[in-house]
Amino acid sequence: MRFGHFDDVRREYVIDRPDTPLPWINYLGTEAYFGIVSNTAGGYSFYRDARLRRLTRYRYNNAPFDVGGRYLYVRDDATGDYWSPSWQPTRSRLDEYECRHGLSYTRIASARSGIRVETLYFVPLGETLEIWRARVTNERDTAAELSLFSSIEFCLWDAQDDATNFQRNFSTGQVEVADGVIYHKTEYRERRDHFAYFACSEPLAGFDTQRDTFLGAYRGWDQPAAVERGAAFDSIAHGWAPIGSHHVRLSLAPGESREVVFVLGYAENPQDAKFDPPGSQTLDKRTVRPVIEHWLRPETVAEGFAELGRHWDVLLGGLRVTTPDPDTDRMVNIWNAYQCMVTFNMSRSASFYESGIGRGMGFRDSNQDLLGFVHMIPERARERILDIAATQKATGGAYHQYQPLTKRGNNEIGEGFNDDPLWLVLGVAAYLKETGDATILDEPVPFDNAPGSEAPLYEHLRRSVRYTQDRLGPHGLPLIGRADWNDCLNLNCFSDTPGEPFQTTENAHGGAAESVFIAGQFVLAAKEMAAIAELRGLDAEAAEYRSAAEKMTGVIIEHGWDGAWFRRAYDFHGRPIGSGEDDEGQIFIEPQGMCVLAGVGLDDGLAVRALRSVAERLATPHGIILQQPAYSGYRIELGEISSYPPGYKENAGIFCHTNPWIMIAEAMVGNGDRAFDYYRRINPSVRETLSEVHRCEPYVYAQMIAGRDAPTHGEAKNSWLTGTAAWNFAAITQWILGLRPEAAGLRVDPVLPADWPGFRATRAFRGATYEITVRKAAGATGRVDHLIVDGERVDGTVAPLAAPGATVRVEAVIEG
Question: 621, 600, 615: which is closest to 663 by C-alpha?
């Protein structure tokens, strides 16, 4: 069942009914000001940090699910009939409805009783504001007298405090209305030198800034008193719940259209602002008023929107593919790339499944996000790497998360996720391969953001590797700490006495539990460090890293191989996890993927055998599940993983993030059919026909899909912000299609399905443009032997670096 369709020409997903299984959302903004908007105009906005600079309020886990957002109300002043053109929150019957989610914008159009309203939401480039452009058209044969009401609910900046500290916040809300602009200045005097504003392009018939007055006593957003009576109350908020609402009257002749522009924005007072008396709550409007007036002009809005489209033309133009599979083209060329950009901006901080309060930017997460983003805006990837590295501790350890506004480690989450440091090596390696910018390695970066502690980024990478080497367990495998990639596998939790509360080991080494996953990750990172050391002319150091990788490979084979797959870990008591010896949780997906990615078992057949076990035991029609059998009850020695019901999240759910590791592993062993089959199983575009089962958006990846042990097998959760986006982009573009950036050039080494005749691609790389054609004999499953580069044969599969501005034509043939 479908609730919409793809419009590939306009790069939009078109939703043609508002009652989607879940709110289907989009993101506004690409730089510092961001917003979430659903297909019914729900969501919220913030500046840089979803917790510390929240502009508008949103209540999670509400009923209906999606309540609170960028709402407009239309009222027929002749009859008193009113409705929401976005369907929510009034949920009135609409004669027509359409939502078009595009790249950093959303357009919602609807019609009722001969009145059509189309609202465009977007954030202009370079600005800290969002635009709502409402185009109201009278399609009747007679004139229409209408009222248009806007509405947003201000958040009191710190979203955590806003949601909890009512005894204080009900007394602090403050607004100011001047020249038709509503200014929100709560807590301005005490500790904030910033404010929000909400402006309208039309002369106002009235306004409201107090929620209880606008809505009325015991009413909700679906039945506002001001809208019902057809006139605003001109209320001024003094504490309680500040809002912003404009009331505009429109007289439209038959066939006439009018555009009304609303601007919601964030501003800070200039550093030289002086007020009399000092500390007074005067807003300095010198800089913001020209900005407001500029963006209230329809012609400015039109050009700003066109500029946003051109911006995305450039970003997506760096990699374009034409394959025999439309779902692949759609995801690679548009939606997967777009999701990578959004995920890079947000990490995991702000979605309809992450409140923006509980976590900021992830250390592990943000490094992985680079894999899908670095080719689009390398300079921002460079900045992000340095931000991440500055939160690293001098030990080489890492805060698991940091706040994007302060760029400081999040002490609430802390450290001890022992895979975190190695992701910095892998993130930097991806950046170096894409850009060739080795100067980043000499960039001075502090530890824990402490002044005077600066060291070159390369030293941070050294300490990342040393962190693992200094923390090895009884089998010589890396200690897992609080957890590795799987945050819910907490193997240092234990109870000395049955029935007694569990303890968590806290010592210098983070407990005795060991991780085979981190061991595989270490092998991969050590090999990357060897290449980076060679880049710096440190051949002896490179040899040490290769030796360390070889030694850990031996440990994995000795203590991490279970006979038909790689074990997952050893618990605090030294018992294997992910072993045929176990009654439940015998095989896990993570080490099968990571160990093969690191090259473990490629030469002796272990990799092929492990991947066969994945196909036999973990693969389902909806994707590859995380482990099997599922844990049937809580096990204190395993931690949070066993707290989930079977088939959900980490307990045998389809954790989509790990699926591309298996796709890449299958490509590495030359199995193109299976790699591509796995790719299609979780591809959102492919799953569009299953929307009533999948439920999440059919245009972006979800973090997880319920596994076969779950009653709702195939149902997705936690869409948008997931490492699934970057890893799937890497799996399809770098391994299945085989277009991999490397130090020496662009590798063209595809591993394609047997029935494909080939594909074409355009890839921007180091300032040059590579136009690539891959041809394949019918049924062939071999690999490329050589390339024809600008008419000349090149042995191997690496197209050499070209001069910036050059166009390079590459031909590759698969015959075997």
Answer: 615
Instruction: Please tell me the total count of domains within the chain.
Output: 2
* DSSP state letter for 438: G
Global pTM exceeds 0.90: yes
268: Cβ contacts below 8 Å, ≥ 6 apart = 193, 194, 195
Amino acid at 503: Q
Whether the Cβ atoms of residue 374 and residue 381 lie closer than 8 Å to each other: yes
**Are the CB atoms for 437 and 378 separated by under 8 Å?**
yes
Neighbouring C-beta atoms of residue 254, cutoff 10 Å: 12
Helix axes of 363-373 and 336-346: crossing angle, nearest 10 degrees: 150
692: number of Cβ within 10 Å? 12
- In a domain? residue 366: no
Residues 102-141 have pLDDT tens digits of 999 999 999 999 999 999 999 999 999 999 999 999 999 9
**Alpha-carbon gap, residue 776 to 812, rounded angstroms:** 9
Six token digits for residue 164: 């909890």
Q: Are 32 and 109 in contact (CB under 8 A)?
A: no
Report CA torsion sign: 633, 638, 643, 649.
negative
Name the residue with tokens 């921002």.
Answer: 380
Can you tell me the distance from the alpha carbon of 48 to that of 50, in angstroms, rounded to the nearest whole number?
7
Q: 573 near 638, Cβ under 8 Å?
A: no
Distance (Å) of CA 277 to CA 267, 271, 280, 282? 21, 17, 6, 9
* Residue 187 falls in which region: left (phi positive, over 0), alpha (psi -120 to 50) or beta: left
The DSSP line for 3-67 is SEEEETTTTEEEE--S--SS--EEEE-SSSEEEEEETTSB--EEES-TTTTEEE---TT-SSSS-
Q: Tell me if 483 sits within 8 A of 415, measured CB to CB.
A: no
| Residue 498, C-beta contacts closer than 8 angstroms, at least 6 positions apart | none
Query: Which among 234, 437, 487, 673 is annotated as catalytic?
Result: 487
Please, which pLDDT band fits residue 510 given cuts at 50, 70 and 90? low
- Distance of alpha carbon 61 from alpha carbon 23, whole angstroms: 12
- 264 domain-assigned: yes
Range of the domain at 773: 739-814
Average of per-residue pLDDT across 530-540: 97
Residue 199, φ and ψ in degrees, nearest 5? -125, 160
β pairing state of 768-776 and 807-814: parallel
CATH of the domain at 61: 2.70.98.40
**Amino acid type, 777:** A
Give CA 779 to chain center in angstroms.
Answer: 37
* Distance from C-alpha of 740 to C-alpha of 758, rounded to nearest angstrom: 17
Q: What percent of the chain has pLDDT over 70?
A: 96
Which of 174, 186, 334, 153 shows the shortest CA–CA distance to 238? Answer: 174
Q: What is the pLDDT of residues 207-241, one digit of tens each?
A: 999 999 999 999 999 999 999 999 999 999 999 99
- Which of the four pLDDT bands, split at 50, 70 and 90, describes residue 494? low
Tokens 């510092």: give the residue.
32
The CATH number of residue 772's host domain is 2.60.420.10
Residue 295 lies in a domain: yes
CB 218 within 8 A of CB 293: no
Integer-rounded Cα Rg, in Å, for the chain is 28
**Cα 778 off chain centre by:** 38
689 and 2 Cβ atoms separated by less than 8 Å? yes
Q: Residue by residue, what is the 3-state secondary structure of 85-131?
A: CCCCCCCCCCCEEEEEEECCEEEEEEEECCEEEEEEEECCCCCCEEE
Residue 298 lies in a domain: yes
**Taking every pair of C-alpha atoms in the chain, what is the biggest distance, in angstroms?**
85
Residue 720 is classified by DSSP as S
Could you tell me the CA-to-CA distances from 671 to 549, 605, 668, 676, 729 in Å, in that order? 25, 14, 8, 9, 18
234 is catalytic: no
Average pLDDT of span 694-719: 97
Contact predicate 557/600, CB 8 Å: yes
Q: Which residues pair with 144 in a beta bridge?
A: 252
